[in-house]
């Protein structure tokens, strides 16, 4: 039942401290919600304008009005349903061939898109610095389009993590080796830095090979690429030669 107290709790889940307090996050839209039961995540309850859409056992499903749904949705134009899900404790898996390392990514849309790219290319794990935007941020969940269900996103100290499992560590740099001619190793980690400042010096010190996306346009007005755009270009090249 969608009480005033419940609405207050659900509305608070747009902030990380309350997601951590209640150990809950929201997923919006029937398509993604229907994928959750086959993932490692557990649905606590569902609020929907059409309960007949779901046949999920052991989940409390409440029918709400469009007005009520709007009160708990983080979207400007709410979809059909909102699922309240339990946060899980992510654990790193050392047996990963290609892994993305995100150093201070701040934009939720960028993280969500990178998670979606990882899912598309079959990359199972992303390791994030502690100050990278929270994977359970509503905008990250929305931008990932359900891919957060299939990609393991872990947080921690990058320097300590990279020193734990010695694999080649690649990073982007304007003076790096041409992406299109570089022979990628079988196993490696790819570091992507903060949108405005790039990777931290202590992270950059651990890079074993710098690569660059060559600029073919004659204009020099564009100084850099969006980090999620760069990730897509790099991953596309990596898997085109595998």
Q: How do the helices and strands follow one another from N- to C-terminus?
A: HHEHEEHEEHEHEHEEHEH
Mean pLDDT level: 93
Strand percent estimate: 15-25%
Rg on CA atoms, Å? 20 Å
Describe the structure.
- The protein is of the alpha/beta class and 242 residues long.
- The chain has helices at residues 4-12, 16-22, 30-35, 66-72, 108-120, 138-144, 158-164, 201-204, 227-240, and strands at residues 24-28, 43-48, 60-63, 81-86, 98-103, 125-129, 152-156, 169-178, 188-193, 209-212.
- The strands form 2 sheets. The protein has a 6-stranded parallel β-sheet, with helices on one face. Strands 1-4-2-3 form a 4-stranded mixed β-sheet.
- Helix 6 (138-144) links the parallel strand 6 and strand 7 (152-156).
- It starts with a helix and ends with a helix.
- The mean pLDDT is 93.
Comma- or semicolon-separated keywords:
about 240 residues; alpha/beta; six-stranded parallel β-sheet; four-stranded mixed β-sheet; 10 strands
């Amino acid at each position: 039942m969608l009480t005033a107290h419940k609405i207050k709790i659900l509305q608070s889940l747009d902030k990380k401290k309350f997601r951590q307090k209640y150990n809950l996050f929201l997923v919006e839209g029937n398509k993604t919600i229907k994928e959750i039961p086959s993932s490692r995540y557990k649905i606590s309850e569902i609020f929907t304008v059409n309960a007949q859409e779901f046949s999920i056992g052991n989940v409390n499903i409440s029918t709400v009005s469009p007005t009520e749904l709007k009160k708990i949705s983080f979207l400007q134009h709410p979809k059909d349903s909102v699922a309240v899900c339990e946060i899980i404790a992510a654990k790193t898996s050392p047996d990963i061939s290609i892994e993305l390392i995100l150093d201070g990514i701040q934009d939720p849309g960028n993280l969500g898109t990178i998670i979606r790219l990882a899912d598309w290319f079959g990359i199972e794990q992303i390791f994030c610095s502690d100050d990278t935007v929270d994977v359970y941020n509503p905008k990250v969940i929305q931008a990932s389009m359900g891919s957060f269900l299939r990609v393991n996103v872990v947080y921690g100290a990058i320097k300590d993590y990279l020193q734990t499992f010695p694999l080649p560590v690649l990073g982007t740099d304007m003076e790096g080796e041409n992406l299109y001619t570089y022979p990628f190793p079988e196993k490696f980690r790819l570091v992507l830095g903060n949108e405005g400042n790039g990777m931290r010096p202590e992270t950059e010190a651990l890079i074993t090979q710098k690569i660059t996306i060559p600029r073919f346009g004659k204009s020099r007005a564009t100084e850099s690429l969006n980090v999620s755009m760069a990730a897509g270009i790099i991953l596309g090249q990596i898997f085109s030669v595998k």
